Amino acid sequence: MLTKRIIPCLDVKDGRVVKGVRFEELRDAGSILDQSKYYNDELADELVFLDISASIESRKTTLQEVLKVSEQVFIPLTVGGGISSVARAREAFLHGADKVSVNTAAVKKPELISELAEKFGSQAVVVAVDVKRIEDHYEVFTHSGKQPTGIDAFEWAEKVTRLGAGEILLTSMDRDGTQSGYDNRCLKIISTSIGIPVIASGGAGTLEHLYEGFEHGRADAALAASIFHFRQHTIIEAKQYLNEKGISVRM
Q1: 11, 45, 176, 183: which one is catalytic?
Q2: What was the pLDDT predicted at 114?
Q3: 14 catalytic, yes or no?
């Protein structure tokens, strides 16, 4: 049985970790390097850096921080934000990233997913999909959740799979930062309809929510921020809980 992964997410702005609610109302959540070292010691399976600022200067700061972290932290790093070309992806890898995450750029230019997969391998390409429930369907949003696309989330998930994505980072905008649990309905539909791993994101507030994401949402990995950043729970506690509930995790 494949083990399920626990992945802390560092939303980065102006060289600091921040956390918001539904992509708004950002508050400081600490030092990038300090948080990264903490998660390394806590046996996190991977670490995600998402540069949520649009400025070129901020991206440079983030890559410098990624390099510092990669020299001291020994878990896989996924870097996203501003990855709009093969050249920018290469820059992220040269700064220590193990995977890159694409979102807005992939919607604008879907063939970018194939270009990245051909150049670096599908295992290094994560497609971040930010979704919001609109009446009876789920719509993809871009530009840090600010721009509706009119694209159906389920159709987009199938398309990025065909284009060569290695996994999908699925974030519920409705649940993000609310600590009310993942949108397991959306998660399950996508997880069971495509052939690549799906990372649950948006809404984790309790250890039970992590369990539900795996058991009911059929996720391959659970990404969380608030629950870990502010030490509501530790990753070690989360893994012990999941292990006791019969979920296979790396201890």
Answers
A1: 11
A2: 98
A3: no
